[in-house]
């Protein structure tokens, strides 16, 4: 049985159950050590640890631990400070919730902010005095260590496995394309594009935070690009059937090397023989194979064989700050509008409950966590999905509520829900909403078990749902199209960066880390645009993604070819002239009268600039739609 592309069998379920039992034991030990006042801190820690398993913290474990320590301690200290005065608490709560959500909200990933905001709501609702504060802070510190430790244990070797799977899928997809071409069937690059996306996306966490990537990881990226270009050349260029059969045989040997069945030296001999005997094949096929051979050698034997690999290092801090602040800290940003709306709703409900001493008003705060939406869905289907997920979550909770009179039982059920979440890894929006709603309501029930009657709880939940759905449409409303416009500009920024870095590479000043960061982030942004476009299809967005992919991939491919083989002086002059006139800083768009009838470098640059021109046109249409 398969679910979400994962094989679900008895062995898989068995180890998941063992994993769950280990979490229950941890919860019992945590409660015994830190007391009943901090039991739900343990629940928060486990839910957070499970949800963050999707983020590979092995990239920089100590900096990730330091960051989580700061977050967890901020939760404890912030909640304690709110006990002095409701008005002061209103300000502190808004600041803590806004900052935490803004920093932890990955608009391209799962909702990592959710368990921490849920945990903060718990800590607010179960305040401790100054004498008990040190123990609470200790529990939060241990929680941060547990989250990172579990992540390192589960994600060990994850990058290598994912990248290996992506490269293998690329090779198999190219073989399939060759078979279809020889059979005269309709060709589609979809599987090759998807495999490239998988491979590049595996690098996202390693590049996003510090924009640094290792030599070996860069070789994986370059290999993926070379194989993507190889598949594209097979589809778009004319080849004899014999050449394609010979190419298929070579790719099968590359696949055998990936699986460990063929040593590198034998593969290099086979590749050299193919390149010598097929010199008349299209130059893009031959360049793809030369780059692939070079990268395979680096990956197998280490950085000592990098050859003409250009500079390695970190991208300047200025680019990181610009990405984080200038592109996001404004009302046109999904991160800003969502963080502001959630912080305002939660801090307001907390203030109402604290100032007027209305205990059940805190249910409104938990309802806000579950239902405040990042954006207003423009399609009726998305709105219905959201309502359906919320309704399912509330229905499950209400049906369970009469039987949930024991805090320990509720805690175990919350752990079970977190376990089921990781087991199913729900990508569908209604299921995510249902899980989030049930988790938030169970947390609230644990905090307020003494509420007199069930209907009063339900009434407060209903008020909260109505208020939050209204707030989603009034407080800085944000639409899917708004995010698509924002992400399109980020995608164009990556394209401009790629072309500028291409120019630097032609001049001999290219930075391979800059190239890797632009490549990985561009793929991540394109992936999110594609997700949005699946919900609200727009043919202009689909065309934009296609031509943008060509700009990014072709630029990366050309840069790697230059780094490997160099560039003749005349070609260098021609390429620089094209980029200076028609590139992002040239002020002109390349006309159709400029033909690709020169050297490979000249022709590639013409093609890239024509794709870039089309990107600019489509970006304008998307923005003005």
Domain module count: 3
Head-to-tail CA distance between termini: 43 Å
Cα-atom Rg, whole angstroms? Answer: 27 Å
Q: Count the helices. How many?
A: 25
Biggest pleated sheet? 2 strands, antiparallel
Structural class: mainly alpha
Mean pLDDT: 80
Report what the structure shows.
The chain has 625 residues and is mainly alpha-helical. It folds into three domains: 2-156 and 332-474, no CATH class; 158-305, no CATH class; 480-624. The protein contains 25 helices and two strands. It has helices spanning 10-34, 39-51, 61-81, 86-104, 113-125, 133-155, 158-182, 190-201, 204-208, 215-236, 241-258, 264-277, 283-301, 317-326, 334-355, 362-371, 380-400, 407-424, 429-447, 454-474, 480-506, 512-535, 539-565, 569-582, 600-624, and strands at 2-3, 6-7. The protein has a two-stranded antiparallel ribbon with strand order 1-2. Strand 1 (2-3) and strand 2 form a beta hairpin. Helix 5 packs parallel to helix 19, helix 13 packs across helix 23 (539-565) and helix 21 packs antiparallel against helix 22 (512-535). The longest helix is centred in the last third of the chain and has 27 residues, at 480-506. The two termini are 43 Å apart. Mean pLDDT is 80; it is low at 1-5, 208-212 and 303-321.
Layout: helices, strands, pairs:
Elements (H helix, E strand, L loop, with lengths): L1 E2 L2 E2 L2 H25 L4 H13 L9 H21 L4 H19 L8 H13 L7 H23 L2 H25 L7 H12 L2 H5 L6 H22 L4 H18 L5 H14 L5 H19 L15 H10 L7 H22 L6 H10 L8 H21 L6 H18 L4 H19 L6 H21 L5 H27 L5 H24 L3 H27 L3 H14 L17 H25 L1
Antiparallel strand pairs: 1-2
Helix pairs in contact: 1-2, 1-18, 2-5, 2-6, 2-18, 3-4, 3-5, 3-6, 4-5, 4-15, 5-16, 5-19, 7-8, 7-10, 7-11, 8-10, 10-13, 10-23, 11-12, 12-13, 13-23, 15-16, 16-19, 16-20, 17-19, 18-19, 21-22, 21-23, 21-24, 21-25, 22-23, 23-25, 24-25
